[in-house]
Description:
The complex is a heterodimer.
Chain A: E1 2-7, H1 23-39, E2 44-47, H2 60-70, E3 75-78, E4 81-82, H3 88-101, E5 107-111, H4 118-121, H5 129-145, E6 149-151, E7 159-162, E8 175-179, H6 184-193, E9 196-199, H7 206-222, E10 233-241, H8 245-257, H9 268-274, E11 277-280, H10 282-296, E12 301-305, H11 313-338
Parallel strand pairs in A: 1-2, 1-12, 2-3, 4-5, 5-8, 8-9, 9-10, 10-11, 10-12
Antiparallel strand pairs in A: 6-7
Chain B: E1 2-8, H1 16-34, E2 39-45, H2 50-59, H3 64-74, E3 78-86, E4 89-90, H4 92-99, E5 110-116, H5 125-136, E6 140-141, E7 146-148, H6 162-178, H7 199-207
Helix pairs in contact in B: 1-6, 2-4
Amino acid sequence: MEIGVFTVSDVTRNPLTGETPTEGERIKAAVAIAKKVEEIGMDVYATGEHHNPPFYASSPTTLLGYIAAQTERITLSTSTTLITTNDPVKIAEDFATLQHLADGRVDLILGRGNTAPVYPWFGKNQQDSVELTIENYNLLRQLWDNDVVNWDGKYRTPLRNFTSTPRPLGGVPPFVWHGSIRTPEVAEIAAYFGDGFFANNIFWPKEHYQQLIGLYRERYAHYGHGTADQAIVGLGGQFFMARKSQDAVKEFRPFFDNAPVYGHGPTMESFMDQTPLTVGSPQEVIEKTLSFQEFFGDYQRQLFLIDHAGLPLKTVLNQLDLFGELVLPELRAEFAKRRPAHVPDGPVRAKQKVGAAAG
Amino acid sequence: MTKVAVITAGLGVPSSSRMLADQLSDALNTELSLSGQNTTVDVLELRDYAVDIAQHLVTGFAPPALAAAIRNVTDADALIVVSPVFSGSYSGLFKSFFDVIDNTALEGMPVLMGATGGSARHALVLEHAMRPLFSYLRTRVVPTAVYAAPQDWGAADDDEPALEQRSRRAARELAAMLVGRPVNPSRPASDRMEPSAPFEDLLARIQAPTS
């Protein structure tokens, strides 16, 4: 079981001080947070990808390359890499390069993105997003799995005798997750290739994600990668904690109430009831996180959103210290105890079915 | 058993929109019982869900009570919808409720429309504002829509009030749509996520030349 953090990279005003950090401060904060993730013994740091304010993360492999140089152990990942609007050739090249720099500590979550204008900004149509996902990922697989690629598609100029360099480290491409909040086709792609499926899990009630994960597990077994409970599942989560539950509630409420996305909407209490958010004591964070396992089955990666909504860096680092001390050891012990021996304890790509779809 | 969901966006307690909704559903009940059909009626006062609807707009998901209400609507065999006229159109609450329902969830749904207003001069709101909304949602709206102005609740013509006549005509049209035909043959059950086509078919569809 891997446990880590992911960021959406928002540059948000701190509602207590009224101050908005600069983009530079947030980028440097990302590095500090990733180093703290390693220091407290977590496993993964993942960054989002956006191409508009108020987000800073337009160049994930640049950021992750810098973090790679300052860490030794953690896996560097994305949440998500846009498979719709990025050129698959560039994804193949960037992440293979990062693999070499980070000695293989790299994987990525592919996603379609949720900002409509990004499509036209990159010369694509949002209506094509599912087709782009299918075609681009099929090409990305070929670029990583085959040394020489001849390829024709609908959305990209053809490739003749093309070799994507550098080749993946040791001939093993980065592990790929496919993230989706509503699209069964994405679960199908993940299942077909024996890749992982990541359910953001943050904003919607769990019943919704349960259906998607169920579809993915079922199809994973259908394609012969293993049993449904061996499929590779990752989940998002979100917490804010203090040693005393009521202190966490008091401290986080102004950030919640003014947060992008859900601010000025539901009360924090109803949002906690309906989504994975926990605001409370370390024990409450442990209990809620373990409830994901009860609901979605044994899974391989848990990422937490901890640095959004204008929370200052110092607070975020304190959250991580507290997590490392009081939550992480408990979670590790309990997840290990619950996981049956035949279920993988981390993301391992199933026996490849690649070639079947390669034209 | 025919499941009818009645949606009213009236804000008063009681509201004239609710009065019209009750009148329409009673009329439908009568018509359906004439053809031997039993009816269950589920009345949804949108006022009770106003905060939930606003939260759904902000967060993108329905709080549990609203989720259940939406399920009742999408699982119904027919809808009776009534809005008060605000600023020359259906009310914002009425529109917001349909905004948070998946825009394919009501395809083929038989619908009877009603509206209430402070003056008879707003009667065409039903034709110029509300009917296009339900066309967009690909519902099947009965030809007669029922508008109730203040005077409709009072003076009756000779032996039958005109509002009652219009209600009965609309209910007859809706009943005719419902009787003897399979209910919602094509609409998937709400909340059910349809599985994807197999990957190789998805890929083949992109590569096949489209005519």
